[in-house]
């Protein structure tokens, strides 16, 4: 049995769906983005941690890690964490301060968590991923329930606007982040469990079962697996992708970001 897992992802790969599915098992932790920079103050307040100004940065890092591991277990024996590639460096630096002189990120994660399963969650269609991300940013709507009700809205509703250059930039960045995960896995000697968005969305029960098996915890009956979020892709998404393919034939490409 593994002590924990890290969902290694990028935005709009189905990570919210997967986190909800794992939490619903009641045996596989309660994963969240505990180390997303924008959310740390909110988590610290929820966990009733002392204000960072009242203690040393080292002591706060230790207290935050302890609280995150407790929350990520969700009353189970397994810790779950969702980690976007852009937050990996900062988390590694925090763990290096807590556990100095360890030789690698993998060693730091294992010192903090124990036996870790690394799940590489990726989306095969990067253009669809970029379009989904931009639409969410523009409309403020990030997730809906299967019945169509809003689950997560971060801004007032606005009409989405097609923007070739913005899609091009997001596409290049998402490709770079996903490639960076693969470079990191190779550098750390990690063989991740790979879960694709297409498989996860088409058969969430099967994807969940494969993770539970790798963790060494019981998988729920397939009939009991109920996705908590629905796809936001619609005719606007398809239209943007069609327009992008046409524009990409006649407009110059941007240089790919180096990471």
Element order: H for helix, E for strand: EHHHEHHEHEEHEHHH
Spatial order of the strands in the main sheet? 2-1-3-6
Biggest sheet descriptor: 4 strands, parallel
Overall shape: globular
**How would you classify the helix and strand content by structural class?**
alpha/beta
SS summary, helix count: 10
Report on this model:
The protein is of the alpha/beta class and 259 residues long. It is built from ten helices and six strands, in the order E-H-H-H-E-H-H-E-H-E-E-H-E-H-H-H. The protein has helices at residues 15-24, 40-46, 57-73, 85-98, 105-113, 126-139, 164-188, 197-202, 204-215, 235-250; strands at residues 4-9, 79-84, 116-122, 141-144, 150-153, 193-196. The strands form two sheets. Strands 2-1-3-6 form a four-stranded parallel β-sheet. A two-stranded antiparallel sheet has the order 4-5. Helix 6 crosses helix 7 (164-188) and helix 6 packs across helix 10 (235-250). The radius of gyration is 19 Å and the shape is globular. The model has no long low-confidence stretch (mean pLDDT 94).
